[in-house]
Amino acid sequence: MSASTRKRPLGLIAGLVLTGLLLAVALLSLVWTPASPTKMQILLKLKPPLVAGLLGTDQYGRDIASLLMVGAWNSLSIAFLSVLIGAGVGTALGLACAIKRAGIFATLVLRGCDVLFAIPPILSAMMLGAFIGPGRFTAIIAIGVFMIPVFTRIAFAAASRIWARDYIMAARARGKGAARVSIEPVAPNIAPPILVPGTIQLRLALLPEASLSFLGLRPPPPAPTRGPRLAAAQTFLRPAPWLALLPGLAIALSVLGFNLIGDGFRDLLDPKAETGR
Amino acid sequence: MIGLVLRRLAGLVLTLVAVSALIFAVMNILPGDAAAIMLGTSASEDTLAALRSELGLDRPVVWRYLAWIAGALHGDFGRSYTYGVPVSELIGERLSLTLPLAGIALVLSVLVSVPLGVAAAARRRGIIDGLATLFAQMSVAMPAFWVAILLIILFSVQGGWLPAGGFPGWQVGFWPALKALILPSVALALPQAGVLTRVTRGAVLDVMHEDFARTARAKGISRRVTLWRHVLPNAAGPIVTVLGLQFTFLVAGAVLIENVFSLPGLGRLAYQALAQRDIVVMQAVVLLLSGLVIVVNFLVDLLQMRLDPRLRATPA
After folding, report:
1. What interface predicted TM-score (ipTM) does this complex get?
2. I need a labelling partner for B285 at 20 to 30 A (CA). Which of A26, A251, B82, B274 fits?
């Protein structure tokens, strides 16, 4: 899409609209849902969309539209918080490593990144879940920790380029300490290369979140995220396929939204780049 | 070249040691009493003490870690508490499913994405390019387990052509076993194919406009031959790199997909071990899968150096 929309960033606009709508729905769920997402009406169970409620009901007769709205909020907040942890810790580490690029600290941190990156978030979440119990906290930590090496590498690469500039040398010559230089001129200059992967990482955080909750490593019931109903829905594929289709569609749309935003920003900032993800 | 490989090899071993230490710390030190976690709150003091001595919990942590690693190097990962058999036996059985599953998915995704990416780049902004971009966006956005469920609805529930889950085992014959792996490997391959299509397209576009490609065309070599013989080998670097990086996601995807299709693979084993709090099995599976990711990335590095002589000149 990026190729055909060079002049007007249609993809970016579509992504912003899509994400904006989903975010609005998620926020709305905090104050209003069509029905109570935890209220069970067994008589109305497994009704197709529009027959009972806008999107039908699940095996307990709960309103799917309401469940999806609350699920959107849970998923988005977990994804957002884990990216925030990853970006915060990762950027700080990357900045610190760039001060002395071949120093012991930098070597250790960058090696450590390889180590963290080798363990898929789904496995670390399972390890953590084994003793602190599955839950929102486990999901955020597991996904966040996996994001740290990504941001460390990006921040390190970007900050190293900035450190080579003349104005940094000038600042150092004026007697500013390494830490102060890292925060004052370096940090603001690496913001753009951090923000774009940030949006892309949000999408990468949404998928493990959905996967973790699909496996049952999720906020404990009754808190609905979108995954577990998929697991339950698998049993009802023949009588009620919409149970499985709708939550997945919701996840796919939110990921698509962040994708389009990420791509759009990248094209805006660097019209030449069309590589990678 | 040999010196560089040796240095990389040393790095590989260090990373493996660090990963194993991290896994051991998370599974054995953080939770406190592993025996209490495995047996739950209702266990009697005698059973707890018996399990503690079986797990070696009465010994120092460092000794336990070294014993674990020494055992793992001999293929001995201890005994599963819930299954009552050696963990290595469980893992061997499960690997005969997970490895073919991941392998088929990897091959499928390359077979789809490389031709598609090259075709998209060849006629930029053409119909194929548009379709390829759409395919990439869609397949990356869809969660793998949802794709799996869609496939089950289409091919098992509606069509009835392929099994919706379960695995008969290789001993019943190659075809029935393979049949059970078709839907899972397609579900696993799809997101990978999306990412790879984008990367191939981008890499080919980058190389296509370099001088040597134009020279090849000027010499009268056809567009197709230029693309496949000259451009693609030079674009292989980023494709192979991403293939290696994506391996983590392939492993994570396999854990999920095995659970959707109830396939008795390593991922399902990890999940069952988690449900039963079988720490001995958990740490072995996590170590094995993470080790696999590290080794694959190491091999990708080597392949990279083989593909691109320029990388051999620069020290790591």
Report:
1. 0.73
2. A251
